[in-house]
Design goal:
Chain lengths: ~190, ~575
């Protein structure tokens, strides 16, 4: 039934449980979209966002069901409530989209992002970088005498904070995966 | 079975009798198969855009999907406008395009284009088929998707080696179509709410659109029953004309930018708006903040994304029009068929007062033919023909045709609404005539639009399609000229043609009949001559060059701020409105 195996807060592709769209403040929503893993599917989703002028803050995609060839796209987007509702409806209209879930309104969910951060430096800076990485529970995945590559997992805010702290300590490169998210509970 | 054979077999399985197309290198194997059979008729157009519009005309007039066959590269890109048009107006067409062989894709081969990439945003769905075994399944899916839910165009891109290779055919019944099944039954609770609102509304209004026509003939019948039983006034969008008969007692005319005064005023002042298969297009709503401010709104639409896209509604009902209307009628009848008779009678009195303004009146002339007069005469001389189909191009003539011609049945009015494609009408009329060989098919055109796809007269002559091209020739881009007059200080930048062809000679060159008419006194005889001629006719009707199309809701204004005629146009549009299209 529920291919995403997350609790539903609303009927699939339904407008009956629409929230009041009169409140026009900008909101940030995390959407989980289950799609057929076939050529061009990502282009369809991205084309929808660019063609209709919606925002993408973060987008991740990977196959999650090898048997049925299904991929899960996690999109973080911003917009007024009516724009968010419209984005969900437009996504639902794409033929290869199986399910659209708004994790932000469908109960509590967990969001994580992975980052790899390269810091180049010597002496006190290098020690400080390593010490800070321990506070953030980052792993060292590569090291030379003058550099570290830290691997860090967490919310986007946590990664932002870490990157900010690394800046004066010799930050040279950041690679981030974008957000993956899933609903809490059964 | 080869891929090319599969294509033809799949079309037969889908009940296709006609294909509009144009051959080229990358579709030669399919054309070879078409050559060797007689079940499917291929209509050779003169330009691929013509094929797409002809397929739209075929689809709109029959309710069946139209089929297009084009080659790779320019063949496919030329069909893009037609697909976009079909997407905007929800018309089911299936486009089959050839592609360079799979091993050459990406090499910038001769006549290679990224067809699925180019057509992704202008189709409901599209496929590049890389394996012959999957080809029949994809074609069956294509028909399923084009015709179910909100209809639309689909494209199947077939590389040449896939057409040559052999594989196993999948019959229609075994195709994987189950995953796409849009909801057709409306939510019971919402229908109950709407039925209750119908019982108490004092100033109700039906606002119907192309969705009623797309839903099928049953939807139109149910709509007629609902309107008759309730006695509520009904208006329609450009796309929905004919779903309810123009001769009907409750009909108040088309609404929107060039709709009737009574329809727009009623939309503005109503207390219950029942939108059936329309989408609150900007030509309908005018400025959104002032759109029908005091009404409760119900919206029946099969596409969830249409709900609350433009206008917030109180009762959204997602489902197929026919299914929802059936449930609604059943429930409302079971509850005792109640309406607020007193309130509705008062409402009709008000509407009749608006009607008395006679917003479509114009000053006639005995020297020049007024375009409105030409269409009134065309209407008078053809309205008794039950098999009359009217197509249009885009512009003033299109609006006048919608205002002055009455449509009694669905599927008899073919016009480019959403995209506003000049050049739509002539090829569409070819498609309609091919589907209805004995019918009277008239394309009401402006000379500028008509010239955009005039090559399709060759198609009409070749297939003896007796289409009547009724060109209201004002030697201007009339609607552009009207906006320049109202909005740009009467600076008529490039809105007239300085070198028009002689349409009568053009007709002769194509091998059909040309008729020129410029005197109102000759008009009836000339129209009768056109109607009685057994073959295609180009009718060059020279009309008043500076006529404006009224009534008009200027951009940036509300329904109750209509312009009714020349006198009211001064400073009608402010700076904010001028930005809008």
């Amino acid at each position: 039934m529920n291919a995403l195996k997350i609790k539903r807060g609303s009927n699939r592709k339904s407008a009956y449980n629409l929230r009041d769209t009169h409140d026009e403040g900008i909101e940030r929503h995390t959407l989980a979209v289950l799609v057929d893993n076939e050529a061009g599917v990502l282009a369809r989703v991205i084309g929808l966002f660019s063609g209709r002028g919606y925002n993408i803050e973060s987008l991740t995609v990977a196959e999650v069901d090898h048997e049925d060839n299904l991929s899960r796209i996690t999109i973080v987007t911003t917009g007024t409530p009516s724009v968010i509702e419209q984005i969900k409806a437009q996504l639902g209209r794409i033929v290869v989209v199986h399910d659209v879930h708004d994790l932000t309104v469908e109960g509590p969910s967990v969001e994580r992002e992975l980052a790899m951060v390269k810091v180049v430096g010597k002496g006190e800076n290098r020690v400080e970088a390593l010490r800070t990485s321990e506070v953030f529970r980052a792993n060292v995945v590569d090291t030379t005498l003058e550099s570290f590559v830290f691997e860090l997992t967490g919310t986007p805010e946590k990664i932002d904070a870490f990157v900010e702290l690394m800046e004066p300590l010799g930050l040279t490169d950041v690679a981030r995966t974008g957000v993956a998210a899933i609903a809490r509970g059964i | 079975m080869t891929g090319a054979e599969m294509v033809v077999q799949a079309l037969k399985d889908q009940g296709v009798d006609t294909v509009f197309g144009y051959p080229g290198g990358a579709v030669l194997p399919i054309y070879d198969e078409i050559f060797q059979q007689n079940d499917i008729r291929h209509i050779l157009v003169r330009h691929e855009q013509g094929a797409a519009h002809a397929a739209e005309g075929y689809a709109r007039s029959t309710g069946k999907p139209g089929v297009v066959l084009v080659t790779s590269g320019p063949g496919a890109t030329n069909a893009v406008t037609g697909m976009t048009d079909a997407l905007m107006d929800s018309i089911p067409i299936v486009v089959l395009s050839g592609q360079v062989p799979t091993f050459m894709i990406g090499s910038d081969a001769f006549q290679e284009a990224d067809t699925v990439g180019i057509t992704r945003p202008c189709t409901k769905h599209n496929w590049l088929v890389k394996d012959t075994d999957t080809l029949p399944d994809v074609i069956h899916q294509a028909f399923h998707i084009a015709t179910s839910g909100r209809p639309g165009p689909v494209l199947v891109d077939i590389p040449k080696d896939v057409q040559f290779a052999s594989g196993t055919y999948t019959p229609k019944e075994k195709a994987k179509t189950k995953h796409y099944a849009p909801q057709v039954k409306g939510d019971k609770e919402m229908i109950k709410q709407l039925a209750a609102m119908i019982e108490t509304a004092e100033r109700p209004m039906f606002y119907t659109g192309g969705g009623v026509i797309n839903s099928g003939v049953a939807a139109s019948q149910l709509l007629r029953e609902l309107v008759k039983e309730t006695g509520f006034p009904i208006t329609s969008t450009l796309m929905g004309l004919g779903a309810y008969p123009a001769s009907g007692k409750e009909w108040v005319g088309m609404l929107g930018m060039h709709g009737t005064y009574e329809a727009n005023m009623a939309m503005h002042d109503c207390d219950l708006m029942i939108n059936i298969g329309a989408r609150f297009d900007d030509r309908i709503t005018g400025v959104i903040d002032k759109f029908s401010p005091n009404s409760k709104k119900a919206h029946i639409d099969i596409d969830p994304s249409s709900i609350n896209k433009v206008i917030h509604v109180d009762v959204p009902i997602i489902g197929d029009v026919a299914h929802v209307l059936e449930d609604l009628l059943k429930l409302w009848k079971a509850n005792g068929r109640k309406t607020n008779k007193e309130g509705v009678a008062k409402w009709w009195k008000q509407i009749d007062e608006w009607r008395a303004i006679d917003c479509l009146s114009y000053t006639n002339s005995d020297k020049t033919i007024k375009p409105q007069y030409a269409l009134q005469r065309l209407e008078a001389l053809t309205k008794d023909r039950k098999d009359r189909f009217i197509c249009t191009e885009v512009g003033q003539h299109q609006m006048w045709a919608a205002q002055f011609m009455g449509f009694e049945e669905p599927h008899q009015w073919m016009t480019s609404g959403g995209l506003g494609t000049m050049g739509y009408g002539l090829p569409a009329s070819v498609g309609v005539q091919i589907a209805h060989p004995d019918a009277l098919v008239i394309n009401v055109a402006g000379e500028a639009s008509w010239l955009m796809n005039m090559q399709e007269m060759g198609t009409a002559v070749q297939y003896r399609a007796p289409i009547k091209q009724f060109i209201l020739n004002n030697e201007r881009l009339g609607m552009v000229r009207q906006w320049q007059e109202l909005l740009h200080g009467e600076r008529y930048s490039h809105s007239w043609s300085e070198a028009l062809p002689d349409f009568v000679k053009l007709a002769e060159a194509f091998g059909c009949k040309g008729i020129l008419c410029k005197d109102p006194a000759d008009l009836d005889d000339a129209i009768m001559e056109m109607l009685s001629y057994d073959g295609p006719v180009i009718f060059d009707c020279l009309v008043e060059k500076h006529e404006n199309c009224f009534p008009m809701i200027p951009s940036g204004k509300a329904h109750n701020e209509m312009l009714l005629g020349e006198a009211s146009t001064e400073d009608a549009i402010d700076a904010a409105g001028a930005v809008l299209v």
